[in-house]
Every structure is written in C-alpha cells, then in structure tokens.
Fold this sequence. Notes:
The complex is a heterodimer of chains A (418) and B (41).
Chain A: H1 2-28, H2 45-52, H3 87-96, H4 107-110, H5 118-150, E1 163-165, H6 169-200, H7 209-216, H8 220-250, H9 258-265, H10 283-307, H11 315-325, H12 327-330, H13 342-371, H14 379-383, E2 386-388, H15 389-395, H16 397-414
Antiparallel strand pairs in A: 1-2
Chain B: H1 2-24, H2 29-33
Amino acid sequence: MRRPALLIAFLAGLTLLGPAARIHAQAVSPPEDPPVTAAEGGQTLDDILARQRGEGGARPLRDIAAPAAGGTPPGAGPLGTLGPVSDSGQWDRFRHGTEKVTVSAGGDTAKIVIQDGGMWWQKTRVATAPWGGYLLLAMIVLLAVFYLLRGRIRLSHGPAGITIARFSALERFAHWLLAGSFILLGLTGLYSLFARQMLLSPPGTANTEAAILARQGGAPAETLLAYTKWIHNNVAWAFILGLILVFVFWVAHNIPNRTDLVWFAKGGGLVGKSHPPAKKFNAGQKIIFWAVILLGGSVAASGLSLLFPFDLPLFGKTFAVLNQLGAPGWIGLDPLPEQLAPQEEMQFAQLWHAIVSFVLMAIIIAHIYIGTVGMEGAWDAMGSGEVDLNWAKEHHSLWVEEVEAKSSAGSTQATPAE
Amino acid sequence: MKAMLAAFAAIVVIAAGANLGLKHAGFSSGERQAAPSVRLD
C-alpha cells in the first residue's frame, strides 16, 4: 500500500508544482516587444516585400533605438535579442548618414557605411549599358547600308600618279598615338563593362559554389579582366598625350569658316558626284576633330577622376556652376545636387565616362569607315602621308591651291635673280 | 607606316612607364588607403 500512496503523492506534487514552474519560465523570458504599427512609423510586411521588389525606395529614418537615459529599450534586457542597442535603428542611422562613425583609415569616404544613393546609379548603369552597345551596332548597320547604297567613293578621274605630301611623320605619329590608344581603350572599356555580365555570370548560368570557387582561383575571364584593367588604366596616358599633340598640330586648320557652309550645302560630296571645295580639313573632318577634342577631353577628365578615386571630384563643382547658370531649368529639371558623397562623385564619373565614350566610339567608327573602305585614296593620307594629286584636288581643292602657291612662291624665291 | 608603328611602340612604352611611375609615386590603392594603424600590402 505504501508504493501506490507514494506514487499518488508524487503525482499530486507535480500537479501543484506545474503552474509554479510555468510562472517561473514566464518570469525569465524577455518581454515581448510591442508591435510598431505603420501609423507609428514602423514597417509592415507589405513594406518589406515592396522594397524587395524595388518599389518605394528607402524608408524614412525611424530612430527606434535611442534608449532613454536609464531606460531599457524593447528586447534589450539581459536575455534580449538586441543587446544594448537596437540593430535596426543603428542600421537605419548608417543608411541615413546620421550615425557617428570613426575610422582608422580611408577618411570621409570610409565613414559612409551604407551609401543608399548608389542604388539609382547601379540601376541606371545596368539599364543603360546595353543601349551603348545598340548605339555602336546601329552605327555599323547604318554604315553597311550606306556602303550598299553609295558604294566606295572613288576618284572621279582616276589616280594622277603624282603624289602630294598631306601629313608629316610627326602629325601621323600623333594621329596613330591617339587612334591606337583609343582603340585599345575602347575594346578594354567594352570588355570591362560587359564581360562582368556576359562572362562571369552568363545568362542562364547558376551561381554555383563551384563557379564561385573557380573565380577565386582565377578563371580565364577574371584573369583577362585583370589585364584589361591594367591596359585601360595605363594606356590612358598615351591617349591624353595624343589628344594634346593632335590639338596643337591641327586646331588652326579646324576653325569653322564660310567654306564649311558650302560643304554642308553640297552634302559633303557623300551624296551625288560633285566635290565641294575644302581647305586642309573639310567640314566633316572638322566635326570629327572637335568631337575628338571635346568628347575625348571630357572622357580623359572623367577617366582621371576614376583613376585617382576620391582625389579629383568633378561633378559637385560642375553641378554648382550649371545650377548658377540655371541650366537644369532649360530642360525642365530641378537644380542638380551640389553636395555629393565621395562615392556619388565616382558614380557620376563612371556614368559620364561610359556615356561619352559610347558617343565618341560611334563617331570614330564612322571615321574609320570613311578612312578605309569608304573612300578610295583616303588611307594613304595617314598611311604614307602622301596622297594622289587627283584625290587631293577632288576632296581638298583649296588646300592644293594653297600648297601649290606656296611651292611656286618658294621656287621663285629660290631662283637667283638674273 | 613607320609613323604608325612608332606610335604603337610609344603606346606600349608610355603604358609601361605610367605603371612604374604611378607605383613609385605612391598612388597604389594600398598606399592611398593605408594609415599608421592600418597596413594594406
């Protein structure tokens, strides 16, 4: 009889102790945080899902962390999940740039932990890059159609068999320094922009662990990208030197004048059979020259800004000047931001560098076409520097007259007086 | 064509020179981002 009695007593004890044990468990568990409603500035599940879909942008700063003096924020008890500071509040302040950050190196740039403003750049970059490629393809197609319709522009009266010096060795050196470096920069720039998407993560390729490890081991695409960066950064100096030399050598010949209007009126000789008169450079070549100088100069400036990150900011000051002129208002825009984060300076520089480069590449493709397959005799000008006299008379008649006048004047002076 | 080939050779020389020059001028990322308390090499 004693054993059943003990068992009953044990069970009765458990029944009595149960609620007490539950009460104790409730006492040590952290208090549940009161839910923050949307009306109080909190975010709902719908808010989070909308942000993940890329809608709505950044939510406003909601300082939920700052604990009152001596108070304990929700969830920050001894067994709380948040420790002494609310994680979400701290990350909010990082995101909005209100958190005090001290760094050992890197200066103001490194103090920006989350650069929320960079999202528009990333989206714009991804969205606009293919359009740059389409622009180049469109130019190639346009030139192919032009070639099919017009064919090669040939010498109307055939070659004369006599040549005339068009460009000195130094002029051709400067041209090829600029041209060779530009082609290298164009190809490596395109590779840097598109290879990341096309080679590192080709469409339809899973981002598997094996693929990631292969990249870390230096897969061919990454190795090539590393060389590409080296070429792009270092060949840039040859481009800048070529740009300066070409400007110095040819600027005097590229000042617009009335002859250019006649050239435009006659369609530059590209349409029809007539050849409008031109000096050393015709109006079409002047457009190429100024496009190379202005767009190339702008690409070089933004390239230098990218080459020395954060040391050569360009856009904050440029935007301030544009705002003073009221330029944004001319096209219905609000004033441009003048206070830019260091990272934003780099982002504007990258976009500008790429967009202007694409425009310049499209122009240069047309220049390469007309200088090679598009026009008979044009290549010799930059090849040997000597062009056929008939070619010179057809395309640069005023220049030939100038050269012949100088030549005859020189020979008259050289003839001893009798 | 000599001018063209000379220009292409100049591009190679300038690129190699720029690389060496910038290294010695202290413009590598490691040197720019380093500080007495942070060594990046």
